[in-house]
Amino acid sequence: IDKQTEKAPLGYYSVRLTDTDILLEASATTRASIQRYTFPTDRAGRVMIDLHVEAEYDYQLKDVEVIQVGTNRIEGRSHQLTPRVWSDDAHQDYTLCFVMEFSAPILRTGYWKNDSIFEGTSLRGSDLTDAGMYVEFDTRQHPVVTLRTGISFVSIQNAALNLQTEISQPFGWSLEAVVEHQREVWNDILSRVEITTPDTKEKVRFYTNLYRSMCRNCFNDVNGEWMAPDETIHRLSNPSDDYALGCDAFWNTFWNLNQVWNLITPEWSSRWVRSQLSLYDACGWLAKGPAGMEYIPVMVAEHEIPQMVSAWQMGIRDFNPHHALEAMVHQQTTPATHIAGGFAGNRDLIPYLRYHYVPSDIGRFSNSLEYSFDDWAVAQMARSIGNDSIYRIFSERGEWWTNAINPDNGYAHMRDSQGNFVEPFDPITTGANHHYVEGNAWQLSYFAPQDPRRLIALQGREAFVRRLDKGFRQSEPLRYNAPNDYYWNYPVCHGNQQSMHFAFLFNWAGESALTQRWTRSIIDRYYGYGQANAYLGDEDQGQMSAWFVMAAMGLFQTDGGCNATPVYELTTPLYERIVIHLDGRYGRGKTFTINAPGASKNRYIRSATLNGKPLNDFYFPASELLRGGT
SS3 of 6, please? Predict the structure, then answer.
C-alpha cells in the first residue's frame, strides 16, 4: 500500500494498492462491512479471500469450506484453532462463518490450499496451513465493484441475517450511507462530553482518546445467538440491548476504561456486566479476558469483578445484583481450572487462601495485592445489597494486601512460605516482571486502591511522598515510558497499567498540588498529537486513552468507583469548560458542568466550589456529579 494515500476519518478508510493500482475504500457496522474497489480497466480485477492472515498468535485451519453459490455471492466457514494463547494451557477454537456479496458478477473463481493453486468454485480442506479463494471481475464492464460481508461465529445463516439487517436492507450498496451511519452512531457517544477550547488540536486529541476508549468487540448475532467457550449456542434474552462482549483482559481497567464507561456510556457498563453473567450462566465462570468469548488466562486476578461492582455503585442497576455477587464469590473461592479448552480462575488462589498472601516460592507474589483488591470489591458489593456475612468475610480478605508490605522498608517485598522477606532485595530489579507482573517492587508497592491512606501510613507519609515524587522526576525525561516496553526497569511507566494511578496518590497524602503537577506533566509529555508521538507503551484496548479522558476532565477514582459510597477525586481540568451530558440515563440529572477559567495555562487549582458551595477537600461524592450540577 501507499501510506501517503491513506485516509482514515471517522467511519471510513481508503488507500491505494501500489502493486495493482487498486483504490480500496471501506467502512463497517457491528457485524458487517462494506468495501469498494476501483480497478484499473486494462487488466482483470481480483479480490483475495484469505483465510490465514497474520495475527499476534498464529492459528491453524482445522476445517474450511468456501463456495460460490451464485453469480455474485460467496458463502463460507473457517474452523480456526489457536493452540496456545498467552499460556501453554489455553487455546482459542472457533468457526468464523461469512457471506459475501459483490455488486458485479464474478467472471472467474479459483482457490489455493497450502502451496497449490486450483480453478473452481468450491474450496474444501482440513488441517491446512494456508487457504483461500480468489474471484475476478471484468473491469471493462465493471471498473468499480462493491463488496458487502456479514460474519457470525454461529452459522452462515446468521452471517446472512447480520448482513441483511445491518447493511443490505438499510443501506443497499451505498458505502457513503454506511459511513454516514457510523458518524451518527459515534456522534451520539462523542457529543456526550462537550469541551470548550480555542485549540483545534486539543479537540482532536480529546475526542480521539474518547473514541478509542469505546472500541469494543461484539460476538453475538442480531438475533441474540452467540457461541459459548464449550461450542454450545446460546441466545441472549434481549437481543436489542444485550451483547456477548469480548476483550483482551480487564487488567487494571478500574483506573481508566471502567470510569469512562460508568460516567459517559453507562449502558455499555451494563452490557459488560450482563455479558459476563451470560458467560457465567453458560459455563460456570466469569472471564478475566473473554478474548473471542473463550477463557483465556491473559494477565492475572479477576478484575472483571471491579468492573461489575463499580457499575452497581455508580447507579447502573439493571442487572440482578445477587446473581452478580454469587458469580464474584465463585471466582474468589473456587480453585482455577481448565474449562472448554481454556483456563479460568485465579492460578494462585489456593496458596493465597492458606497464607493470606502468595508466597514467592509457590506463586507470583504480586497476586497478593491484586487478589486482595478484588476481594475488597466483592465486600463492597455485598455491603451495598445487604449481605453481611459475605461482607465480613471479604472485608477481612480485602486487607490481606498488608501482608505483602515489609514494615521495615515500606515496599511490597517478596515473601516466602516461611514468612521471610526474601534477601537480597532491590525494588527495581528483584523479581521484576515475574513475581511482580509487568512491573517491579517499586511500582507494586503503591498497589492498594482500596485503602491508599493505610498504605501511606504503612510507608510513612513523608517517605511515601518523597519516594513517589522522586520516581516522577526520574521518569519525566523519558516521557513516562520505558524504552522497548520494559515497563519494570523504571519507576513511573504510564505506558503500562501498574503506574496509572500514581499521580493521584499525592491527593491522599495531603499533597494535592503534586497530583495537579504530575497529572498535567503526564498529559503534556506522554500524550502527543500526531502520528509519530500520539501513544507510547501499550494502549491495551483504549486504556491509555481512557485515562486521558478522565484526567483531562480533572476527575479520577483510585478505587475505580467500587466503594459503596464512591467519590470523584480532583486534579486540574485541561479545558476551561466541560459539559458532561448525563441526559437522565439511569435516573441521573441532565448535565454536569466543569468551569475552570485559565485551566489550559495553569496546572494548579486555586479554589473550587460545588454547586456554589466551597469545596475544601480533593474529592466529592460521585452522587453529586450524577444528579447534575456545576
Answer: coil
